[in-house]
Amino acid sequence: MMIGLGLEGYDPDSQHDAAVAFHVRVVEDEQRISRHQHRKGQLILALHGAITCEVDNALWMVPPQYAVWIPGQLAHSNKATPSARLCFLFIEPGAVTLPTRCCALKISPLVRELILTLAERSLDPLQPATLRLVDVLFDELPRQPQEQLQLPVSPHPKIRLMSEMMAEAPAAWQTLHQWAQHFAMSERNLARLVVSETGLSFRRWRHQLQLIVALQGLISGQSVQQVAQALGYDSTTAFITMFKKGLGQTPARYIASLATTSR
């Protein structure tokens, strides 16, 4: 079943099926779902474009072939890129053992196809074949590896502004000095603020944001050189070093590994 990002009034807690999935297509006027919560846990799988999920003190930016897991009763908001295609999977509490905290999961081709097939059968959730499909899905879901695609954030207006502007134009905002001038405060005080609000130094926090933005660009088809330039790196080598330190592989090998597991 294909529905809009706002789920067209669907209440995931109105039913007690172990799992129910929907295809979601994003249109220009509904790119964001405001803060909400529900009893069921929710897995948001990105098929095309990207999805951003925000919970208290953390922001997940999930590109294609990844999903964000949101445990039940956890307040969150979602924002998708224009024309994104997603799949929402709602899971009844206790139906399967999944992380108790919000996280990003690298989704295998098998699990991806299981979720997509379940979405196609959403009108017949109690059919024996559909129930067997859910059993297999629940066997495989706990095996999906977690990826460090979260950016620590906070309600502090300065941290909020920094994260939004650096994600939108990472090459334009490279240094702590730039931000200190923008806020008319000392670099030392701003550095302390970033650590107290995010738990990371400004350099590590900026690198984590760059890593997430880089992965989005690479998976969307940009070259390593294009991504490095967009992030403001003077050399491709410096960007590759940052990427490898964060994800354990060079960008080319990382993207190649995704290609070998996708259809």
From TrEMBL:
Keywords: DNA-binding, Repressor, Transcription, Transcription regulation. It comes from the Bacteria. One of its GO terms (molecular function) is DNA-binding transcription factor activity. Residues 156-257 form the HTH araC/xylS-type domain. The keyword Transcription applies. InterPro entries: Homeodomain-like_sf (IPR009057), HTH_AraC (IPR018060), HTH_AraC-typ_CS (IPR018062), RmlC-like_jellyroll (IPR014710), RmlC_Cupin_sf (IPR011051), Tscrpt_reg_AraC-type_HTH (IPR020449). It holds the Pfam family HTH_18. CDD domains: cupin_NimR-like_N. PROSITE patterns: HTH_ARAC_FAMILY_1 (PS00041), HTH_ARAC_FAMILY_2 (PS01124). This is Helix-turn-helix transcriptional regulator. It comes from Silvania hatchlandensis.
